[in-house]
From TrEMBL:
<dbReference type="InterPro" id="IPR013783">
    <property type="entry name" value="Ig-like_fold"/>
</dbReference>
<feature type="signal peptide">
    <location>
        <begin position="1"/>
        <end position="27"/>
    </location>
</feature>
<dbReference type="InterPro" id="IPR006598">
    <property type="entry name" value="CAP10"/>
</dbReference>
<dbReference type="Pfam" id="PF05686">
    <property type="entry name" value="Glyco_transf_90"/>
</dbReference>
<dbReference type="InterPro" id="IPR017868">
    <property type="entry name" value="Filamin/ABP280_repeat-like"/>
</dbReference>
<feature type="repeat" description="Filamin">
    <location>
        <begin position="28"/>
        <end position="134"/>
    </location>
</feature>
<dbReference type="GO" id="GO:0046527">
    <property type="term" value="F:glucosyltransferase activity"/>
</dbReference>
<keyword id="KW-0732">Signal</keyword>
<keyword id="KW-0325">Glycoprotein</keyword>
<keyword id="KW-0328">Glycosyltransferase</keyword>
<comment type="similarity">
    <text>Belongs to the KDELC family.</text>
</comment>
<keyword id="KW-0808">Transferase</keyword>
<protein>
    <recommendedName>
        <fullName>Glycosyl transferase CAP10 domain-containing protein</fullName>
    </recommendedName>
</protein>
<keyword id="KW-0256">Endoplasmic reticulum</keyword>
<dbReference type="InterPro" id="IPR051091">
    <property type="entry name" value="O-Glucosyltr/Glycosyltrsf_90"/>
</dbReference>
<comment type="pathway">
    <text>Protein modification; protein glycosylation.</text>
</comment>
<dbReference type="GO" id="GO:0012505">
    <property type="term" value="C:endomembrane system"/>
</dbReference>
């Protein structure tokens, strides 16, 4: 080939050698400091979260959003306080691989004024530095906003949550005096329950039943909330078991019971699961899998993901056994295996050998994620949705607080409760790759918009606020209740300006 006829050929060659561009990226798709977008709750003083966070969307000179990562270390975030020499703040910038980044930080002390610098090659990005004026509280600071409506406005909470309205619509009123007697009588012997009273923003509890270890999750969210906002006085019961309890028909005398999982056949009031709640409270703390970390670990891009459907888990339900059998019959379509046998007798000839635990982030090497109930709803669904694989969700009577807002074929691909159409649905996804990818991204968007820490705090608050309004007698600290104390191991206790000002009035 005569290069004089194709001068651009040699140019192309040199661009690819010297341009340092990842394959597929165009030369003009470098982020611009001026055009790049930065937004999110972590840029606001009054949105107190265990881990605060904000987003960075890389935008090039022409104003076009980047859709691929410009490199993990593209943006640098620094947080300083002009009046302190050191800030005890742990920062991470997570690359979401789609041209956007999630910057998160956990504060170990409270500061007055914070300056957040977002830098691109030492140049300020967008309106950086972002200034958080006034007292910026850390999560451990016991400094409740006295007005719930002011707090909700600061948090940008939605006016209502459809699931809360549905659940509470069955209870025209709640009589604390009555439930304080009747619920322990009805369930206290055989179930594990917590009876909570919140009075003057202090939390009191009495437990019923033997297995009450899971109360730590409920204690933790209540204490975290009462540090941030004054809760209404209220009295309520939390079911610490897996299964929802209130099986009476709505026309009978039903009792309000708060549970982590709801079902079509019960009338419990659902809350975000203890798993999701814990992951919010312990983001950048005790947990490694949370709604933010998962966004930075979604594996290869869609086109490079393995088109075998994937599942790992334990044997907590018959359909899980059926799924593994199906996988053994169709290994080119489904890779499903047990990591643990606990509920059923393990027959290796039927279910194969146990396989090693797979890191959750490695699930996203696969395009198709199968979500099947365990003892109740599978609490992994929020994290599966947050990835960029498409979820095939088993129809189920069990639900978490957000399932009823998900739409089949929009956010996930539905499969029958008995898995009878699973092979067919996987084939559909393989034959309709663009549609499947679109569903994957819609599910991801749902998770990003509805299942982050601020959404979870709003949900709990709204639930308590609406429930409290239904009470027709005075919530009371009952005999046998103990105070649930705020942790005292905080290294850097804060002085709460707000409470002090109020006390001095
Ligand atoms: C670019 O990204 C921002 C932030 O996600 C979004 O609001 C905007 O609609 C995007 N622009 C285009 C043209 O897609
Ligand atoms: C896809 O995954 C299956 C099951 O895990 C595996 O057997 C197969 O080799 C993988 N395919 C590719 C191309 O990696
Ligand atoms: C449970 O109720 C939902 C919503 O009404 C419905 O879509 C679903 O099919 C029901 N599932 C089962 C197994 O009852």
């Amino acid at each position: 080939m005569d290069p004089r006829l194709f001068p651009w050929l040699s140019l192309l060659c040199c661009l690819s050698v010297f341009g340092h561009e990842p394959p597929g990226a165009r030369a003009d798709s470098a982020p611009s400091a001026a055009q790049t977008l930065v937004w999110g709750p972590g840029l606001e003083t009054d949105i107190v979260l265990p881990a605060r966070y904000f987003y960075i969307q890389a935008v090039d000179n022409s104003g076009t959003n980047l859709t691929k990562s410009p490199g993990e270390k593209t943006f640098e975030v620094k947080i300083v306080s002009p009046v302190e020499q050191f800030t005890r703040i742990w920062i991470q910038v997570l690359d979401r691989q789609d041209g956007s980044f999630l910057a998160r930080y956990r504060m170990y002390a409270t500061y007055s004024d914070l300056h957040i610098h977002v830098l691109l090659r030492n140049k300020h990005v967008a309106n950086s530095p972002f200034i958080l004026k006034g007292t910026v509280h850390h999560d451990g600071c016991d400094c409740p906003q006295p007005s719930g409506s002011v707090w909700e406005a600061h948090m940008h909470c939605p006016q209502s949550f459809p699931q809360i309205d549905r659940d509470l619509s069955l209870f025209p009123s709640v009589d604390p005096d009555r439930i304080a007697h009747e619920i322990p009588q009805r369930f206290g012997q055989r179930q594990s329950l917590c009876h909570y009273t919140v009075k003057d923003n202090k939390v009191y509890v009495k437990t019923f039943g033997e297995h009450v270890g899971f109360r730590i999750f409920m204690d933790a969210i209540l204490l975290s909330l009462t540090r941030k906002v004054k809760l209404p006085d209220m009295e309520f019961f939390v079911n610490l078991g897996d299964w929802p309890l209130e099986k009476r028909k709505p026309t009978e005398k039903i009792h309000p019971i708060f549970s982590w999982c709801g079902s079509n056949n019960t009338r419990d009031i659902v809350m975000p699961t203890y798993d999701l709640t814990e992951s919010v409270l312990e983001t950048m703390g005790r947990v490694s899998l949370d709604m933010m970390s998962v966004q930075a670990n979604t594996g290869p891009p869609w086109s490079d993901k393995n088109a075998t459907a994937f599942w790992r888990g334990r044997d907590s339900r018959q359909e899980r056994l059926d799924l593994v059998k199906l996988s053994r019959a169709h290994p080119n379509i489904i890779d499903a295996a047990f990591t643990n046998f606990f509920f059923f007798k393990h027959d290796e000839s039927l279910y194969g050998p146990l396989v090693k635990h797979v890191s959750f982030f490695d699930f996203f090497k696969y395009k198709y994620q199968i979500n099947i109930d365990g003892t109740v709803a599978a609490y992994r669904l929020p994290y599966l949705l947050a990835g960029d694989s498409v979820v095939l969700k088993q129809d189920s009577a069990y639900y978490e607080h957000f399932y009823n807002e998900l739409r089949p074929w929009e956010h996930y691909i539905p499969i029958r409760a008995d898995l009878g159409d699973l092979l067919e649905k996987i084939q559909w996804a393989r034959d309709h790759d663009e549609e499947a990818k679109k569903i994957a991204l819609a599910g991801q968007q749902f998770a990003r918009n509805h299942l982050m820490g601020d959404n979870i705090f709003c949900y709990y608050y709204k639930l308590f606020q609406k429930y409290a309004k239904l009470q027709i007698t005075e919530p009371t600290v009952r005999n046998g209740m103990e105070l649930v104390e705020q942790p005292t191991d905080d290294l850097f206790p804060c002085s709460c300006q707000r409470t002090r000002a109020k006390d001095e009035l």
